Each structure stands twice: as C-alpha cells, then as structure tokens.
Amino acid sequence: MSRRRQTIARRLLEAQHNAAMLTTFNEIDMGAVTSLRQRHKERFQEHYGIRLGFLSFFVKAVIGSLKTFPLLNAEIQGEEIVVKHYYDLGIAVSTEQGLVVPVLRDADRKTFAQIEQG
Fold first, then answer.
1. Which of 26, 29, 51, 107 is deepest in the core (most CB within 10 A)?
2. Residue 93 and residue 101: Cα distance in Å, rounded?
3. Which of 89, 85, 91 is nearest to 70 (CA)?
4. What 8-state DSSP symbol labels residue 78?
5. Every domain of the chain and the residues it spans
6. Residues 4-63: pLDDT tens digits?
C-alpha cells in the first residue's frame, strides 16, 4: 500500500473509534443557489480566474448552521463537552489515489474565491 493509502486507512480507523458514524440524506431546493450561481459565474471567473462552483455555497451554509447550533461543532473530551469556536471543515475529495479529506482551515473567514481555490 502506498503511504497515502496507509494514512487514509489509519485515519478512517481512528475516526470510527472516535466519532459517531452516521449517514443522512436530505433533499433541498437548489433553485435559488443555481440561479445566483448562473448570474455571477462568468464575472466571478473573469475576476478570480477560477470557476464558481457549488462548494463555496455549501461551505457557507454549513458554517451558518454550525453558528446557529454550536453543539454540532463540539466534541467530547472525557466527561466534558467542548464547543469549538473555529470552523475547520474536512471535505472528502475523490482522487485517482483514493479518497482524500483535505481540511479547509478557518472556513468562516474565507471568501467564496478562497473556498473555491481550496
């Protein structure tokens, strides 16, 4: 196994031991986001030199939710619940070498362009 695959496997195993694992599916109407993106994507690309995707909209929505429900941005340390006051988001990306989860540090401080750049 490559080093990257070994690291991925080790971290996935650590996550299984340290986090509640669940999957949920929600359907939402993306019409307003799609329309907004369509109206601004050409100007965005001309100005920043990158495409305006859906990821930045998703990241901003997640941060808004975490700020509204701060216990979702918490962890258990021993018998204490520790609420985090920063927003580092891990976003799974499929690559030829396998699944990678880069962390977008201080995502709440990033602009749409910074999020799209990674």
1. 107
2. 6
3. 85
4. T
5. 51-118
6. 888 888 888 887 787 776 778 889 999 999 999 999 999 999 999 999 999 999 999 999
54-69: pLDDT as tens digits: 999 999 999 999 999 9
Q: How far is CA 48 from CA 45, 75, 89, 112, 117, in A?
A: 5, 36, 23, 10, 9
Cα 25 to Cα 1, 28, 108, 109: the distances in Å are 32, 10, 24, 27
Specify the pLDDT at position 22. Answer: 72
Non-local CB neighbours of 54 within 8 Å, separated by 6+ positions: 30, 33, 37
DSSP type of residue 73: G
The CA dihedral of 49, 51, 55, 57, to the nearest 10 degrees, is: 90
> Which of 102, 108, 115, 105 lies closest to 8, judged by CA?
102
